[in-house]
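so my prof wants the structure for this chain in the tokens format not the other one, which i didnt know existed until like an hour ago. anyway here's the sequence
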Amino acid sequence: MKVAIYPGTFDPVHYGHMDVARRAALVFDRLVVGVYAHPRKTLMFPLEERVALARQAFEDTPNILVEGYEGLTVTFAARHNARVIVRGLRVISDFELEYQMAMTTRKLAPEMDMLCLMTSLEYAFISSSIVKEVALAGGCVAQMVPDFVAEYLRGRIGSST
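here's what i got, hopefully its the right format
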């Protein structure tokens, strides 16, 4: 069985994430969406909420499993017998970071490979940071996230103001 992981913070999950994951799920028998618990960036949602939203986003894709994790991504991948880490590229500036991550991954786990998928053109402008910024400013995020995520954002932002 060919298994890959697709790690990220998914804070929150958006159409760009979903595009990359669904396309990767066509290539692999199983895709494990790994929701990273403790990134260096500031998060809006705790791990449990990010996992729940991602599970809902992929509930219609049976070979996608969503799981939260801590520690090294290569360790998480090994736990799932995955030899491939999937990453999404939106813009050219993403390439430098992804290249550095790929080289680090190869040093930590030489048997591991990284596969980068270009985000589809209609989602190339979307990032979780943009989604949160637009939502916090009261803008419409309907073209960036599924309805249940937009609703969740509205409820979360409304309760914090």
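also thought this was worth mentioning. The helical segments are 15-27, 47-57, 73-79, 92-108, 128-136, 147-160.
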